[in-house]
Amino acid sequence: MSTWAPLRSTSLRLGPVGTAAAATALTALFFIFIFVRRTIWSRTPSRPIAVSPARERVLVLGASSGLGRALALRYAARGARLCVVARRGERLRELVGECEGVVGGGGVGVGGAGEGGEKCIWEAADFSSPEDMVRVRERLLAEWGGVDTVLVCAGVAAVRPLMELTRLGANSSVPSSSSSSSPPSSSSPPSSSSPSSSSSSPPLTPNTNTSVAPGKQEQDATTEGLHTALTIATRATQANFLGPLVAATAFVPLLTRTSAAPALLLVSSVAAVVPAPTRALYAATKAAALLLYQSLAIEHPGVAVATVLPATIEGDFRAGAVDVVDEKKGGEQGGKGEGEKERGKYNMKGLKLGYVAQRCVDAVDRGVRGCVVVPWFPYAVAHHLYYVWPSFIEGRARRKYGFEA
């Protein structure tokens, strides 16, 4: 008798409706189990026993604004020794002043491993630059003799549909329907068999649709458009994948050598695990970094590697998206340009910075290994549900972002 025979016979007795109900019940029990387990597990902070908050040596990459800045202030309030890193030195100087005010001034660090050194230090650096990260590492060794916690918060947004990237000109945003400029000669589909075939092709007019419904025609991307998309994708990859890669490879050995309880935390996004339109480039680069750190965690069991995946956070993070065109800067991408409502404006409806920052601190204190989705419901559920019912998640996303037929 086959091993699966009892299950098949049970399925036949229940019928399609009964089988679906049983599957739903089992799924519900699974999520209840996960919720209870997480609730009990979250009550047992363990890391402060090995590394007390007042002796902790913390490095925050991407600290000049947003979540990185909020994390720096929280660790400063706990009395940790703090090194803040970002590209904008003037903002870091202001942040250090705030951090010193929170802890009652800078001065000499508390005792412990790597005694002495300033309480709060800063370095203007690009976390995707090996030279810059080596310089930061040498500063940490000189000041404190090592590091206990590395928080990787830097990154960039991307907010356009993927095909729209190919329609971004060098000095303009997506062409408007009122544009009188003629398309470049390279806009015709190239042909390898006939060099002159482009002259016989009908001229193409700019596609002004942000989204193209199923069944409607999209125009082929030009060579120039493909280069534009590649340039934008390279910028996103540099910040969202290569930056975390350089940071991890630069500091993991130092963590393992100099900390009693080394911790590495990557701030990712729910976009890394739940696909959404207008987030293709952002989601892909965030997902790449997420898997990088998950694999790194397996390779380095001595380091508590955690990833925090928040939903949209309040702030103007999207204003500096790599695919937003700033017309005031001659069409430079990555500025505050005109576009959909979310671009260039402070988002008041997202998760509060303080709440997400505290979840990050809690994850480090508990020695979390793995993903922390914020909020857990509905996004963690959506992540798992996508693999068993993708059409449901995709349908909801299309309705939310206006990509329905």
UniProtKB/TrEMBL annotation:
<feature type="compositionally biased region" description="Low complexity">
    <location>
        <begin position="172"/>
        <end position="202"/>
    </location>
</feature>
<feature type="transmembrane region" description="Helical">
    <location>
        <begin position="20"/>
        <end position="37"/>
    </location>
</feature>
<comment type="similarity">
    <text>Belongs to the short-chain dehydrogenases/reductases (SDR) family.</text>
</comment>
<keyword id="KW-1133">Transmembrane helix</keyword>
<dbReference type="Pfam" id="PF00106">
    <property type="entry name" value="adh_short"/>
</dbReference>
<keyword id="KW-0560">Oxidoreductase</keyword>
<keyword id="KW-0521">NADP</keyword>
<feature type="region of interest" description="Disordered">
    <location>
        <begin position="170"/>
        <end position="223"/>
    </location>
</feature>
<keyword id="KW-0812">Transmembrane</keyword>
<dbReference type="GO" id="GO:0016491">
    <property type="term" value="F:oxidoreductase activity"/>
</dbReference>
<protein>
    <submittedName>
        <fullName>Uu.00g064910.m01.CDS01</fullName>
    </submittedName>
</protein>
<dbReference type="GO" id="GO:0016020">
    <property type="term" value="C:membrane"/>
</dbReference>
<dbReference type="InterPro" id="IPR036291">
    <property type="entry name" value="NAD(P)-bd_dom_sf"/>
</dbReference>
<keyword id="KW-0472">Membrane</keyword>
<comment type="function">
    <text>Putative oxidoreductase.</text>
</comment>
<dbReference type="InterPro" id="IPR020904">
    <property type="entry name" value="Sc_DH/Rdtase_CS"/>
</dbReference>
<dbReference type="InterPro" id="IPR002347">
    <property type="entry name" value="SDR_fam"/>
</dbReference>
